[in-house]
Write a structure and sequence with these properties.
- By secondary structure, the protein is an alpha+beta fold.
- The protein has one domain.
- 32% of the residues lie in helices and 15% in strands.
- It is built from 2 helices and 3 strands; from the N terminus they run αβββα.
- The chain has a 3-stranded antiparallel sheet, covered by helices on one side.
- β1 and β2 form a beta hairpin.
Length: 98
């Protein structure tokens, strides 16, 4: 049986990316729970009442930036996707759509 590769990462790589990303924006990654690991990896961050989404391994930075702009545009239009960054000022569990 082959190992699961959520988002195209080995589990150790994925957790290293999560730890680094959370440190960069001041979020606590401890007790993170992987809730989806197909195209992207989506983690629930219980200590922060927030979600973290990690783009698929090898996704160009421009594509990630485009998706972040789209999520922000949707939020500005009143559609409640989960926030893509802590600066979105809305980390409610109730806004999470997976």
């Amino acid at each position: 049986m082959t190992a699961t590769r959520p988002g195209g990462f080995l589990p150790s790589e994925l957790h290293a990316v999560l730890e680094c990303a959370c440190a960069a924006v001041g979020l606590d990654h401890r007790d993170a729970m992987l809730v989806r690991g197909q195209t992207n990896a989506v983690f629930r961050l219980p200590a922060e009442s927030a979600w973290a989404k990690i783009a698929r391994f090898g996704t160009p930075a421009e594509r990630v930036e485009q998706k972040v702009r789209l999520v922000r545009w949707l939020m500005d239009a009143g559609f409640p996707p989960p926030p893509s960054t802590p600066s979105a000022n809305n980390r409610s569990w109730s806004t999470a759509i997976l």
